[in-house]
Amino acid sequence: MANNDTIPAARFYAKPAKRPRSPSPKAPEPPQSHTIPVANRSNSQAIHTSGHHFRKEVYVQAAEEMQGKYSMISVDTLLDYLPDKTGMPDPAYDTLKEVAQKTNETEMYEPFILAMTPYIAKEWTFINTSNHFDQTSPAAKYFTGSDIKPDIGLYSSIREGKPFTDSSEAELFGEFKLSPLDDPFPCKESAAARDTRGQIALYINAIQSTQERTRVFSFLIVANMCRLFCHSRAGTEYTKAFDHTKKSFLHQFFWRLSHAKKASFQGHDTTLKRASTRMNPDAAAARKALQLSLDAPLYTVTVADKIFYVSRPFTFAHLFPVGRGTRCYSAYDPVEERVVIIKDTWRDLAYEPEHKVYEKLHSHKVRYIPQVVAAADVNGIFQMTSVGQWTEAKPLSPCP
After folding, report:
1. CA 396 to CA 390: how far, in whole Å?
2. What is the pLDDT of residues 339-363, one digit of tens each?
3. Helix (H, G, I), strand (E, B), or coil: what is residue 253?
């Protein structure tokens, strides 16, 4: 199975940023519901939160990983990714102005939540995550051995009885700063700006690597200014900074995102659907064939005209924030009653589809290579990235 992608070949195969070590097979933690295993990447014990009291090497690593993978867009362009703002209450600014005047960052979170809650769907909720580590999602530890702790999380359901910070269930994470020196764009060279870029990359990647996603949204507040983000496997789009105490862009963003009727508009990859297990003999057979526990997630995925059952990927490439994001799954074929391998990747259109290559190899009697059962490109909302279009129009920002 392959997703369309428009990453230019020259950019995709350019000299990569310095990457963490390849994961050891002994490093992954035990699988948990809604998560996938990841390796602990370094010996750093720095907690990933918003203060800049000491240098955090993990931010530097994350910023290097995203080097050259940014593009600035207008706020209107980003908002156009989401449904319209029909039904949104009139924007209120008084509380936001008070929040912007705070001199202690931790005092910003709760009043901000109070001010913006009227602009999210009824079942959605903001959570002050600033004092709660993400202990449920191993992929949150991608660049280091410690946990992330973002300032605010937005969830599509009530969190009663659940962890405050959970990358595997969060819709997005938001970050707050006091000083303009911490504003990472347009790609400033200061250490503070670089660290903020790395910090945002960590939070976005924690969600992307623990969920089935085509996009991850985020936001950054710096005093009275705000930026919105939309990240895909091709890179991160960021908006021009705007004064959210005077303009309604942030109100519109939360309203549009939370009221989208289709999860695909919110950045979820709906090509994988939760399998119905009630009175479903195929699902029961899939669990047995894949040796899954009763609480392990089970999905159906359609490739061409064939339906397969999968659970979690057993590969690690999708833990990188950009690139093909390849995931390989053990999959159960209910028609043939056998286990096969499904490879899901964001495909570069500059190259021939992989299954076509296999067909040619088989036609020349090449031995010991896989036999393709089914192959197709996935269509739908956000199933094609747009970095190729950006580079046609203007180069990506060369963030240091």
Report:
1. 7
2. 999 888 776 667 777 777 777 887 8
3. helix
